Amino acid sequence: MPQVDRHKERTVNIEFGAMEDFSILPYPERYTLIFITTGSIHGILNERPISISAPGVLCLAEGDHVQVVERRNVSAQSFRFHPDFLNTVTLTETKDYFPAAPSIQTGLSLFQRDHLYSGVPRVTEKAYPLLFEWFFVLGTEVHAQSDALWVCRIKKYLIQILGLLEELNQNSEHSPVDKVLDYIHMNYPRKISLNDLTNCAHLNRVSLNKWFQERCGNTAFGYLLTHRLKVASDLLTHTDMSLNEIARSTGFEYDTYFIKQFTAKKGMSPTTYRVTSRKFSSAQ
To answer: Contacts for 277-283 with beta carbons within 8 Å, 24 or more apart?
Structure first.
């Protein structure tokens, strides 16, 4: 629920969750910062596997598609705010807290999905104590509303949090798994060898598959096959392309091999899947 400012006659479109349960994600009409303080989560963000261990942060916009598949002893807090929340900052409100007028663009790249990694910024050991302190202040101010400037202080700490996360994100080095995921997502329609993937990651086969198992629950080649079949499933449902055309479009050299792999993984032939999925879609 939005906050009712008891010092001024206004509604403030923010919420703080001391115990985020991941049951309603993303929150409607909100940017959401989820600060994971213990444990870990594994899931899918916009069709991309994510794995976040404490200390970690998940940044969500309203239009994101997120599914938390597994939680391991996780504790997390969340702060949600309407995108216009920072636009109401004025110099008179913030002169005691900001050395200069804050930029309302600070941190917004974390919620823009033109960057593949923006939803899960890096959190370093040095950054963690600051983030923990600032999140604590956010929660305290939301619930206490200690004086007429409580909203100002929240904006101050929110901008500090977003600025720090944005800087960490822009200067982060992405893991070998991320590099291989990028390679797969961009090149799955063509022939890909195991050497292509190991060269991309600069790892040997054993190390690459170990990292992939930890992150995605599958080997690198197993993930490649799963991704190809996912795209093929969408093409079967939403287009009239022939099986041969779909096979070629998703990196299978022969339609017979495509049919064999699809049937083994999906439990039905591509033709049966096409008929069934279209009946299900039309019934919705």
So the answer is: 277/233, 277/236, 277/237, 278/237, 281/237
Mean pLDDT on 234-254: 88
What value does the mean pLDDT take over residues 192-201? Answer: 93
Look-up: residue for tokens 């070998």? 176
Q: What is the pLDDT of residues 63-83, one digit of tens each?
A: 999 999 999 999 999 999 998
Burial of 110 from C-beta contacts in 10 A (0-12 / 13-18 / 19+):
buried
Lowest-pLDDT choice from 31-45, 166-180, 237-251: 166-180
Listed by start position, the domains of the chain span: 3-170, 176-283
3-170 fold = Jelly Rolls (2.60.120)
The top-scoring range by mean pLDDT among 177-181, 195-199, 235-239 is: 195-199
Strand spans (E) along 119-277: none
pLDDT by residue (tens digit) across 108-144?
888 887 655 568 888 888 889 989 999 999 999 999 9
Task: Please name which of 25, 68, 51, 36 lies closest in space to residue 218, comparing C-alpha atoms.
Answer: 51
Residue 46 makes CB contacts below 8 A (sequence gap 6+) with 64, 65, 66, 113, 119
Own/partner pairs for 91-99, CB < 8 Å, 24+ apart? 93/149, 93/151, 93/152, 93/155, 94/152, 94/155, 94/156, 96/149, 96/152, 97/152, 97/153, 97/156, 98/156
Correct CATH for 176-283 of 3.20.20.140, 3.40.462.10, 1.10.10.60, 1.20.1050.10: 1.10.10.60
Residue type at position 165: L
d(CA 94, CA 151): 10
- Angle of helix 194-201 relative to helix 205-216, nearest 10 degrees? 80
